[in-house]
Amino acid sequence: MEAGTSPAPKLDQKTVFQEIPINGSEESMYRPYINVITKHDLLGDKFKMVNTSAHFDKDTSSRHKIKPHPSVYLADHILGDRISRFGELELHSELKPSHDQDAFQDPPEGQDLSRWDLRNRSDAGTKARGQLYHYASEWQIRQHRNHAFTIFLFGEFVRFIRWDRAGAIASQRFDYQKDATHLIDFLWRFSQLSDAARGKDVYVRRATEEEADMARIELKEWEPGPKVQRPLIVFKIPVENGLDREFIAWHCLDEPDVLTGRCTRGYPVYEAATSKKYFLKDGWRVHSLEPEADILRLLEKNKVEHVPTYICGGDVPNGVTQTDIFVTCEQHKEDSDERSHSPITPLPSECDSDSSQCDSVAWKYEKESA
């Protein structure tokens, strides 16, 4: 819990969530779940929970439209005609009526964890896990995040899941209908967290109206298509002299369609301070690989031809995955390398990451502004 966090409301942990029906239908669970959380103010006044289960996200990047279960947004978010919006999602809940639909399986006491596969391989478990993964992937595609949280209810049990670019960490399951202490504490603590602690990338923000107006003019040739909405954003890229540079982005030329890996994004961007256009590459670098910014600098130093002109970029502070630290099963260790978030801006540029650290690079775009 972050410093200064107030204690959770005192509730009867043994009865507070018992009005949520189990072994029925998913639809019958949504409203009671939302009602309990809202009634007891478990998300405070900063957030609101909305029943999005009947509404497709109209801006999803997938060709398959998806409907997330109860979604948490900031309290001042205006829904409009887009009820489901992964681009605004703060906390996701997935509800299943039966404990047989658990996506995972806890090890028996005394089990050698290096030989235990956490995944429930039953048909119902596999389907539930695929759905969870699909939602988490879309969420990370639509936002710039270091991590995200899901509450997964199945029958009388619940798990908490933390997602990042190296995979997912799932808690042990517990019976929230008998004792909801952990569920109450999780919701309340989440409501007290900072943007960074909730997983948001603090080096990316929404553009102001003035910045957005500039970008719509300067980046018009890369205007997104009319079918989906994407916000205009600003990347803050750390540079060697300690003074950050900011680049406005509109349309991502290449969006990753998976949760894990390098998850590279490419943006034409505009820097108001220099009135120039660049190409920015944003991604997650495996720690075992050398930062791309260092490679570009070395190539430039040695006057290697046909290489993008490096402008600025590198690993973002605190943009490091955590899933790799908790992997115990030997067969999954190679699939969850630590990654760093690394944005780069060259004349064309690039970013990537593996444990993962976030790495951003910017290149100067070939078509410079006058």
Give an overview of the whole structure:
The structure is a single chain. By secondary structure, this protein is α+β, with helices and mostly antiparallel strands. 20% of the residues lie in helices and 24% in strands. The chain contains seven helices and 15 strands. Strands 8, 9, 10, 11, 12, 13, 14 and 15 form an eight-stranded mixed β-sheet that branches. Strands 1, 2, 3, 4, 5, 6 and 7 form a seven-stranded mixed β-sheet that branches. β3, α2 and β4 form a beta-alpha-beta unit. It is globular, with a radius of gyration of 22 Å. The termini are far apart. The C terminus is likely disordered.
State the main characteristics.
370 residues; alpha+beta; 8-stranded mixed β-sheet; 7-stranded mixed β-sheet; 24% strand; disordered C terminus
- Which term fits the overall shape? globular
Output the helix-strand order: HEEEHEEEEHEHEEEEHEHHEE
Please give the share of residues in helix.
10-25%
Please compute the radius of gyration using only Cα atoms: 22 Å
User: Mean pLDDT, as a whole number?
Assistant: 86
Strand content range: 15-25%
Euclidean distance between termini CA atoms: 50 Å
Number of helices: 7
Structural class: alpha+beta
- Annotation, overall tally of beta strands: 15
Quick summary:
The chain is an alpha+beta fold and 370 residues long.
How is this fold's topology laid out?
Blueprint: H1 27-39, E1 47-50, E2 71-74, E3 91-96, H2 123-142, E4 148-154, E5 157-164, E6 167-170, E7 174-175, H3 181-192, E8 204-206, H4 209-218, E9 233-237, E10 245-249, E11 265-271, E12 276-286, H5 292-301, E13 310-313, H6 323-326, H7 330-333, E14 339-346, E15 356-364
Parallel strand pairs: 3-4, 14-15
Antiparallel strand pairs: 1-2, 2-3, 4-5, 5-6, 5-7, 8-9, 9-10, 10-11, 11-12, 12-14, 12-15, 13-14, 13-15
